[in-house]
Amino acid sequence: FQLDTLKMADRIVSKALKDGMEKKMIYKDIYILARDRIHSFATVLGKSPIQIAMNSQKIIGTDAKLPISG
Question: Could you read off the pLDDT of 28-45 as tens digits, one per residue?
């Protein structure tokens, strides 16, 4: 599921780049177009179970300690 989601996000960005270049938009505006499309996609998609679990454990930043199973 996550790989398919990533592929779809990549397609959305590629389409935004193509659309922006065809309309001869400046780089910053193409970036904003791609960002807005990805934001809309993420909003519709919602949070993944992994992200929800991490948020419930209050893991923030790179200083967080994850349990290691072995």
Answer: 999 999 999 999 999 998
